[in-house]
Design brief:
- The complex is a heterodimer of chains A (294) and B (979).
- Chain A is of the alpha+beta class and 294 residues long.
- Chain A has one domain: Ribosomal Protein S5, domain 2 (2-Layer Sandwich), CATH 3.30.230.
- Chain A has seven helices and eleven strands.
- In chain A, the strands form three sheets. In chain A, strands 1-2-3-5-4 form a five-stranded mixed beta sheet. In chain A, strands 9-8-10-11 form a four-stranded antiparallel beta sheet, with helices on both faces. In chain A, strands 6-7 form a two-stranded antiparallel sheet.
- In chain A, helix 4 packs across helix 6.
- Chain A is elongated, with a radius of gyration of 21 Å.
- In chain B, a hairpin with a 5-residue loop joins strand 26 and strand 27.
- With 979 residues, chain B is of the alpha+beta class.
- In chain B, the strands form ten sheets. In chain B, strands 4, 5, 6, 7, 8 and 9 form a six-stranded mixed beta sheet that branches. In chain B, strands 20, 21, 22, 23, 26 and 27 form a six-stranded mixed beta sheet that branches.
- Classes of the chains: A alpha+beta (294), B alpha+beta (979).
- Chain A: This is Ribosomal RNA-processing protein 42.
- Chain A: One of its GO terms (cellular component) is cytoplasmic exosome (RNase complex).
Chain lengths: 294, 979
């Protein structure tokens, strides 16, 4: 759906006004409706399903495997599969790198450590099931699903559980093969639920900029009139890397003012806690593995 | 999992839910989700219940289950219980399995599936005992699959501990039975050892008792009280010794993976029960395990994990004979060293040292690395035969009924005594008894077991025979009903003519009619299972047609039938002195398959065209119909051939066979076939009482080797054919080349004592060098060396061809490149497989998938190798027993040879009886005067008369031989005394 000149001018004007009005009458800090649940895949250690009002749907799965390595970069593997895209397209690779890097930066790897020699290795598989047909190749798609994926992965990680190790933790001198309890009920959350050891995996926010206005989660219509986009990563109650400038639209290319970046980050600081709390609530829901497979 | 409804209805009476668990394997952990099906048609197995009648549906094998629990179970008047069934909890099974097995109490018992599963996870031997109970319908134990039944399945609550969940499942089953049988007037008692569980059950309205309370309710409870597990576990009272604890399985797996620990089967030396050895792939020679602590409760044949000991503890192999008696007297073999923790890195360095120590030929530092057992992967525990230790019963003691600990001495000397608890010690004294081993805790010097049954008086012929069958794991029970159902229904009336005229077998036309050939069989006298028959005739072109005809067992034994499975599991017939344990039912072995004379029989024939020099020009295989003209004994056949007045066709054919067989044999010997020897004897039994009365060494006639040569020839031809057709799964037999190290000791003895040597480069050079080992003064010396050389050989084994490369197929002893067993399908299972494969190779009938699948073949091969070995041992043990009986009454002086010298005794072989026995130093003479010259294999001592005497290996000695009953083991054994 391409906007006419009049339409885009109208939207642009209402966005840059001193009291910005978004076409769908959202607040600047308001997301479009999202629906999410977790524990969707019974065979995964953790999983989530999240979808947008426009039908964009993302399934994430976290699986854990035991490896003998301490190479941090080996411990988290991300693979993104997009409906209708090959694995090696720039879009897939770009998304994979972005998600992986942001997770590595925000992750507390001590939760993956099993013994002196063994670690859990995470395989995070993400599948985008549907993209709006018209905009498959637009930049909008990329940034819209980036935010969606990051929330999906967040829930999947927060709800993931790991089997309980029952063999010795100290195996530096004397080799032990890790052995686990066969009772799934005694498994523990990957990210501990108590506040001292808990942490938040990175969430990626997409902020649209136009004039002096910053808006979160720009919609398809807004995206066509925006001057700039910034992706801001948030984890463990602060802004973290990467903070990137994005070219959300090609309509109104203007210079990016530094104070606008600050403004975008302030916006994220405003909403982030609320977003992560909402996601935590979803992750803490009872995982009803059974209903969902039939 | 959540508490919400998590079921989905699939069909009427069938719903599905989910089970989630973790599979921890090879150090990895995977979450596994399984579907769990719940159905409504699981019966309650009570005869009193009418509503479950529709639930008895035929299982996969077509058998319909039937109610087992009695309609009129035991009535208890106390507590207004009335007729009742019992539901048992897991802890009752684990702690009081013995009383459950008792035939006075516990009838009509319901075992919930939850209990069965828990018991299996906790203790496999007890699980097996419970399983046996549930199969025995007299005791009326039923397994109730409560987790699959819709009324008794309950989902696990969130956060519920697995034990609580299991208890809840068991209570739920008890409650279900309670309500289900209310109308029938049968009450349900839940017997549990868990206080909390009992209280909860009572709250649920289920009557619940502890086992002590329950027994008190029974009439005659006084007597039964003795059988109850005492409140304090009797194992805890024992504190004789502290064995090192085994490593955790995590540690074992980790260690094996990184190469710091090794896994292998342990063999305990039959001369010294405190010395074991483990062969592992990492170290070239078997690793020694010395002493009680290091053996750490391992049984002969257990699959164990070992670690190397530090270099300071490496030892020379023991030159002493140690048996349990001596050790228990002076506490020998206990070493108490402080444990030092060493890292895996050091362990690996140690391994390299060990390999170096084993491979350097340096005589001065002949030190062997030793190890210790740190874990047991799989116990080789089975039922054992033994007898109560003589000091188990105090003769003056008043007969009391209280249970007491006794020791059972096992027949196998390489195993420790077993502690059992019995009230019948007096009664069992002097009997052969069967015991099972339950556990061996680290604080107990000996394993604990329990009494199973008695076989009879020691030295009773039947008891001893059964004992040795049990000891060698030979299945001797009669064939079961469903096995016998596979036999032709005509029984002994089955015959070829009827079968052919019936004509409904499409394979008949592929069968060749060879009834015109003049076929005869030659076997040992009295043979009834005739596997093979032969014929030969001159062809018009001057060559010979030679045929070997083998009983067509596979015509009757079709693959995959219960009959076939039974044959496969028995693997071989077992020949004892006066008894034969058949692999296949008598009807087949001695009648329908047996190639009896004068009647038509089905056979599998190998036909060759041979020239004058016994070269094979042509070979063909066919299923056939034959008619044997005569069944000869070896001697009869020999007489007929030698009798020049006999000029009939049959005799002429036999002369051709003899002529050709001699050429075949010569060719085989030229190729390097070995002529080995074993001290084989034959026991003559009185034909009426079957009491043994004479022993003789087996004689060999020309006709023996006539049959043998053609059988070898047939086996080789068949082996080539089936390998050609099935390169991956052909059933073959190989005989590995013995490693030169096996001969080291023998060669060293020969070199030092006789200035001779054996070459082991090839079987040809071995055969030649054995021929050269002669002592002009002693004609028996050559045979002695052959006997000793035989013991250095590898054992021949069956294998599926895909497991070895062609070069390794070689049969070393026969000096052929490929070999199989084809000629005795009545008594060996390998031959049955070879028959089926050959039949498929000649397009007679397709090969059944069980012989095509390599993994299945590997299992078959493993089993028949084991059975074959056991059968040999059982046969030898039987001869040994009878030789003992023969000698019981006649002490005599015989010629013997010294074959081993230890620092405290010598081993002497008496060829006349084929027995060998140890003579201990204290019997020989003064212990303190003895001097052992290890390098010259010589023991010097002062004999009883004070005369200085020296004996060394290969010496011919006069011994007086007598048979004595060993009080300790209850075994009759040969006692030798040096003259």
């Amino acid at each position: 759906m391409v906007l006419s000149v009049a339409e885009s001018a109208f939207i642009y004007d209402s966005l840059v006004a001193s009291h910005p009005i978004r076409p769908d009458s959202r607040e600047p800090t308001q997301y479009r409706p999202l629906k999410a649940n977790c524990g969707f895949l019974p065979n995964s250690n953790g999983s989530s399903r999240i979808y947008n009002a426009d039908g964009t749907e993302c399934i994430s799965s976290v699986k854990a495997k035991v490896i003998r390595s301490s190479e941090i970069s080996d411990l988290i593997n991300v693979e993104i599969n997009i409906f209708g895209e090959k694995d090696n397209t720039t879009l897939c690779q770009h998304l994979t790198t972005l998600i992986k890097e942001s997770l590595i930066d925000s992750f507390d790897f001590s939760v993956l450590k099993l013994t002196d020699k063994y670690y859990f290795q995470l395989y995070i598989d993400i599948s985008i099931l549907y993209l709006p047909e018209d905009f498959r190749y637009s930049s909008y798609t990329l940034y819209s699903i980036l935010s969606l994926i990051s929330m999906g992965v967040y829930i999947a990680l927060k709800s993931a559980k790991l089997p309980l190790l029952i063999s010795d933790k100290e195996d530096f001198e004397v080799e032990e093969e890790p052995t686990f309890s066969d009772d799934w009920e005694v498994s523990a959350f990957l990210i501990p639920r108590n506040s001292e050891r808990s942490f938040q995996p990175a969430l990626i926010f997409i902020v649209g900029l136009t004039g002096n206005t910053v808006i979160i989660d720009p919609s398809l219509e807004e995206e066509q009139v925006l001057e700039h986009g910034i992706c801001v990563t948030w984890s463990n109650s602060r802004i973290t890397a990467p903070v990137q400038s994005l070219s959300l639209s090609t309509a109104n290319n203007k210079g990016l003012k530094p104070q606008m970046i600050m403004k975008a980050m302030d916006l994220v600081k405003n909403v982030a806690c609320e977003v992560s709390d909402a996601l935590n609530l979803i992750a803490q829901q009872d995982v009803n593995e059974f209903d969902t497979i039939f | 999992m959540s508490a919400s409804v998590k079921r989905k209805r699939l069909a009427s009476g069938l719903t599905v839910t989910q089970k989630v668990f973790v599979r921890s394997r090879n150090g990895n952990a995977t979450k596994i989700v399984r579907e769990h099906y719940i159905r409504d048609d699981i019966p309650c197995f009570s005869k009193a219940c009418e509503s479950c009648t529709e639930c008895y549906k035929p299982g996969p094998s077509g058998e319909v289950p039937h109610p087992i629990l009695s309609e009129s179970p035991l009535v208890l008047t106390k507590d207004k219980i009335g007729k009742h069934y019992v539901v048992i909890d897991t802890n009752i099974v684990l702690n009081a399995i013995d009383i459950l097995e008792n035939d006075k109490v516990f009838y009509d018992v319901i075992v919930p599936q939850t209990v069965l599963n828990e018991v299996r996870n906790r203790s496999y031997p007890i699980y097996m005992r419970l399983r046996t109970l549930t199969k025995n319908e007299e005791k009326r134990f039923v397994v109730f699959h409560n987790e699959f039944k819709v009324e008794t399945y309950v989902p696990r609550k969130q956060g519920e501990i697995i034990n609580d969940y299991n208890d809840r499942l068991i209570r739920h089953s008890a409650k279900y039975y309670h309500n289900h049988l209310l109308e029938a007037g049968i009450s349900i008692l839940l017997i549990t050892g868990d206080k909390a569980n009992k209280e909860l059950a009572v709250k649920d309205g289920v009557m619940s008792y502890t086992i002590h309370e329950y027994i008190k309710l029974l009439p005659g409870s006084e007597e039964l009280n003795d059988l109850l597990p005492s409140t304090e576990n009797f194992e805890k009272q024992i504190n004789e010794i502290k064995y090192p604890e085994y490593y955790s399985s995590a540690r074992l797996m980790g260690g094996i993976k990184n190469g710091s620990l090794y896994q292998g089967n342990i063999t305990i030396s039959s001369y010294n029960f405190l010395e074991g050895s483990v062969t592992t792939s990492a170290i070239p020679k078997p690793l020694l395990i010395l002493g009680r602590e290091n053996l750490n409760r391992a049984f002969n044949g257990d699959n164990v994990v070992i670690e190397l000991l530090p270099k300071s503890k490496w030892k020379k192999p023991s030159t002493q004979i140690i048996d349990e008696e001596t050790v228990n007297k002076d506490g020998l073999g206990d070493d108490d060293d402080n444990e030092v923790i060493i890292s895996d890195k050091e362990r690996k360095l140690l391994t390299q040292e060990a390999i170096k120590a084993q491979t350097t030929g340096n005589e001065d530092e002949k030190i062997s690395p030793t190890g210790r057992v740190v874990g047991i992967v799989k116990r080789s525990w089975r039922l054992y035969v033994g007898q109560l230790s003589p000091n188990a019963v105090n003769k003056n003691e008043v007969v009391s009924n209280s249970a007491k600990n006794c020791f059972v001495i096992l027949m196998d000397r390489s195993l420790p005594k077993v502690r059992i608890r019995t009230r019948r010690a007096k009664e069992l004294m002097g009997k052969r008894i069967v015991v099972a081993i339950d556990s061996w805790n680290s604080n107990s010097k000996f394993p604990s077991g329990h009494f199973v049954r008695t076989l009879g008086e020691i030295e009773d012929k039947d008891a001893e025979q059964e004992a040795l069958l049990l000891e060698h794991d030979v299945e001797y029970r009669p064939f079961s009903k469903n096995v016998l159902a596979c036999l032709p229904k005509e029984g002994h009336d089955w015959n070829v003519a009827d079968y052919v005229s019936n004509g409904d077998d499409p394979l008949l036309e592929k069968r060749k009619d060879l009834r015109d050939r003049l076929i005869c069989s030659i076997d040992p006298p009295g043979c009834v299972d005739i596997d093979d028959a032969l014929h030969a005739k001159r062809l018009p072109n001057g060559n010979y047609e030679v045929g070997v005809h083998i009983a067509d067992v596979t015509h009757f034994v079709k693959a995959g039938t219960p009959l076939d499975q039974e044959g496969a599991s028995r693997g071989t017939s077992v020949y004892l002195v006066d008894k034969r344990i058949d692999m296949l039912p008598m009807l087949l072995g001695t009648d329908l398959c047996s190639l009896k004379p004068y009647v038509d029989r089905f056979a599998f024939s190998v036909l060759w065209e041979m020239d004058e020099d016994a070269n094979i020009l042509n070979v063909s295989f066919t299923k056939s119909i034959i008619k044997s003209r005569e069944a000869f004994a070896y001697e009869q056949a020999q007489i007929r051939i030698d009798d020049q007045s006999q000029q009939d066709e049959l005799t002429l054919g036999m002369r051709i066979l003899l002529k050709l067989s001699k050429k075949l044999k010569q060719k085989r010997l030229d190729a390097g076939a070995l002529n080995l020897a074993s001290p084989e004897v034959k026991v003559h039994t009185d034909s009426e009482t079957s009491d043994p009365n004479e022993v003789e060494i087996k004689k060999l006639l020309d006709t023996n080797s006539l049959v043998e040569e053609f059988m070898l020839c047939a086996n080789i031809s068949v082996a080539r054919k089936i390998y050609d057709a099935f390169p991956q799964v052909a059933m073959l037999r190989r005989h590995g080349e013995p490693p030169a190290t096996n001969f080291e000791l023998l060669n060293d003895m020969l070199r030092i004592k006789k200035g001779l040597s054996i070459s082991t480069e090839s079987s040809k050079s071995l055969a030649d060098s054995l021929d050269r080992c002669v002592d002009s003064k002693d004609p028996y010396f050559n045979t002695l060396i052959r006997i000793m050389a035989t013991r250095c050989m590898m054992a021949a084994e069956y294998f599926a061809s895909g497991n070895f490369s062609y070069a390794e197929f070689r049969h070393y002893g026969l000096a052929v490149d490929i070999y199989t067993h084809f000629t005795s399908p009545i008594r060996r299972y390998c031959d049955v497989v070879a028959h089926r494969q050959l039949a498929a190779a000649i397009d007679y009938e397709p090969l059944h998938e069980i012989h095509m699948d390599k993994t299945k073949m590997d299992l078959v091969v493993k089993n028949i190798n084991k059975r074959h070995r056991n059968a040999q041992f059982a046969g030898r043990a039987s001869i040994e027993y009878y030789v003992g009986q023969v000698m019981k009454n006649n002490q005599s002086d015989q010629e013997g040879y010294i074959i081993k010298v230890f620092s405290n005794g010598v081993v002497v072989l008496v060829p006349k009886y084929g027995v060998e026995s140890l003579i201990k130093l204290e019997v020989l003479g003064d212990v303190n005067s003895a001097q052992f010259d290890e390098d010259n294999y010589t023991l010097e001592f002062s004999d009883k008369l004070g005369k200085r005497r020296s004996v060394s290996v290969f010496d011919r000695v006069e011994v007086s031989i007598q048979s004595i009953l060993d009080d300790y083991t209850g075994k009759r054994r040969v006692q030798l005394l040096l003259k």
